[in-house]
Specification:
The complex is a heterodimer of chains A (125) and B (461). Chain A is 58% helix and 13% strand. In chain A, helix 1 packs across helix 4. In chain A, strand 2 and strand 3 form a beta hairpin. Chain B has 15 helices and no strands. Chain B is globular. The chains are: A alpha+beta (125), B mainly alpha (461). At the A-B interface, helix 3 and strand 3 of A face helix 2 and helix 4 of B.
């Protein structure tokens, strides 16, 4: 199953912020974490993560630093900032509202493939 | 063994991919480094999973996504990057120190020029009484410093330096040894002194060009670069002058509000120092930004070539239709000289920006129309003047204007021939380029003749 582009774009901010709230990380590891968390259902185009990271950095939600990784290469790590955490709380609140709304509607409807319903709301869990 | 081969080819592939990314304006080298780290990790992980290096590379590149889409995303996030900025000290290149030294040297030289223009005042040569002295020597206050800047920047040899010094010393001598007739109480310049004031900068600009081009002066490419530099410099200088004008007007206004007349300060300090200092600053700007910002002169040329061509063709048509003769008065020769200069400028700067390998297109035809119609218009004017030149008499101004007209006419006529040959597929565009760059010394030589020979020939009037 593929998740449509608008949903991916809308969810990218809370997902990236939440992953960075766990620990500081860098592009490749963030993508890997997304893939693992979603069981491979959220496939981001690798390159597209970086403009998102740069936007969050510009907004002051995250901060970047260059470090030399074990491989000897220079690697750009990102760290969530205090405004970033506040933003994450806000995003969490909004997604819960969306999730609750959808749950309310789903209950009254009988849609095919009940399992796919839960896939829409990994955030609410 | 095979693994070693793979390593090399992977590095090559990554280098290729990197150079492909580098062409995207919105993606900076710092981002490329970040993306490359990602790509390498992806390749390594896929390699551990059993893929061969080249396969892993292909998959990793594919996962990275379409580069056009990626570059669009970067452009949306960093829209400022599409506006090329003049970055004096870029953080991720290896030459920030060099750029800073360059800026410091340029500004020091600008200050030196500003000081130099005030030095004669120390010896009692004020601007008001010494107008003639300042007019004749203006270029000598600043062009040696500009030349020095290029000598320093290009690390020219002592041998070349010696010739440059000789040229400037000679210029200083010829500008000052002649007993020019003074215009009396009005302080107006005599004709030959005015000619010196006008022509000395032209001759010395070529000397500056020799320092600018350095050891490439002998090549068409080196001299063409100097032509490009001159055009951009002119535009920058005009812009700086406009900004300076606004600054002075504004300052005068606010000082007037507290009843202080700041005009004398402007006239004796800000204006002369600004005029010479801006030359160094303008030249430095052109040098610093040459690869950062699109050249402006060719853009303006594109804009104005059709308009000038239309104006000239209309003029010729009207001339034919009404049968009017060209009204000859004192300034008509100067007017037509200026016309030829403008046309030459339009030709020069479209030549300087044209890829000589491209086949002829409509713009080239337009260019030929412009040149030929300018030639015809000038020929009509010359014909009218020739009939009455003896009646007017040979004043220094008229001879100088006539000489300039002849020089420009020869240049444009032969350019037209070369251009038409090129349009008809019988010649290459580079021969036109070469003609233009080879012709540069002719202007300087004529200017030098006017400075050196005219005052004694016309009795210093």
């Amino acid at each position: 199953m593929e998740i449509n582009k608008d949903l991916i774009a809308a969810s990218s901010t809370p997902i990236v912020l939440a992953i960075l709230a766990e620990e500081d990380s860098y592009g490749y590891a963030i993508l890997k974490r997304v893939r693992d968390l979603s069981g491979g259902r959220m496939e981001w185009t690798d390159g597209m993560l970086y403009p998102v990271l740069h936007r969050l950095e510009r907004l002051g939600h995250i901060k970047a630093r260059w470090e030399v990784a074990d491989s000897g290469r220079r690697r750009k790590y990102y760290r969530i900032t205090r405004p970033g955490r506040e933003q994450l709380v806000e995003e969490h609140r909004q997604w819960q509202a969306v999730d609750a709304t959808l749950r309310g509607i789903w209950k009254g409807l009988s849609l095919a493939g009940g399992t796919s319903l839960t896939a829409h709301c990994p955030q609410g869990a | 063994m095979a693994a070693a081969g793979h390593v090399v080819s992977l590095e090559e592939q990554i280098e290729l991919w990197r150079s492909y990314l580098r062409r995207r304006q919105a993606i900076h080298s710092i981002d490329i480094a970040e993306l490359e780290d990602h790509l390498r990790e992806q390749v390594a992980v896929l390699g551990e999973a059993g893929l061969a290096a080249d396969e892993a590379f292909l998959v990793a590149v594919k996962r990275m996504g379409d580069l056009d889409a990626l570059s669009r995303e970067f452009a949306r996030e960093h829209s400022d990057r599409l506006w090329k900025q003049l970055v004096m000290v870029s953080p991720d290149t290896g030459a920030p120190a060099r750029a800073r030294t360059d800026a410091i040297v340029a500004f020091c030289l600008a200050v030196a020029a500003a000081v130099a223009i005030k030095v004669p005042a120390l010896f009692g040569m004020e601007l008001e009484q010494g107008a003639g002295f300042y007019a004749r020597n203006l270029s000598l206050f600043v062009l040696p410093l500009l030349t020095g800047y290029f000598v320093w920047k290009r690390q020219l040899e002592i041998r070349v330096l010696r010739w440059l010094v000789v040229a400037f010393v000679a210029a200083g001598v010829f500008a000052n040894i002649y007993p020019f007739v003074s215009g009396g109480d009005t302080g107006a310049l005599s004709d030959t002194a005015a000619l010196t004031a006008l022509h000395l900068p032209i001759a010395l600009w070529l000397i500056t060009g020799m320092a600018y081009a350095g050891d490439r002066w002998g090549q068409t490419g080196g001299r063409m670069d100097f032509i490009r530099f001159s055009g951009e410099f002119f535009i920058y200088y005009v812009l700086i002058a406009l900004g300076g004008g606004v600054l002075m007007g504004f300052t005068a206004l606010i000082f007037e509000s507290i009843s202080i007349d700041i005009e004398p300060f402007f006239q004796s300090w800000l204006l002369p120092c600004g005029v010479v200092g801006a030359v160094l600053v303008g030249a430095w700007l052109v040098e610093a930004k040459q690869s950062v910002i699109e050249n402006m002169a060719p853009v303006l040329t594109r804009l104005f070539t059709p308009l000038f061509a239309a104006a000239l063709v209309t003029f010729l048509g009207t001339l034919l239709w009404t049968g009017r003769g060209v009204d000859i008065d004192r300034n008509v020769l100067i007017a037509f000289d200026l016309l030829l200069v403008v046309v030459l400028g339009l030709l020069l700067y479209s030549v300087s920006a044209r890829d000589s390998g491209m086949p002829p297109d409509a713009f080239d035809v337009l260019q030929v129309v412009l040149v030929v119609s300018a030639l015809v218009a000038d020929a009509v004017a010359l014909w009218a003047i020739a009939a009455r030149i003896t009646e007017f008499g040979f004043t220094p101004n008229r001879v100088a204007a006539l000489g300039e007209n002849a020089i420009l006419l020869v240049n444009l006529a032969w350019s037209a021939v070369l251009y038409i040959r090129f349009l008809r597929g019988r010649g290459s565009f580079s021969s036109l380029e070469q003609w233009q760059t080879d012709y540069l010394p002719v202007y300087a030589a004529w200017a030098a003749i006017v400075v050196i020979a005219f005052p004694p020939a016309f009795g210093y009037i």
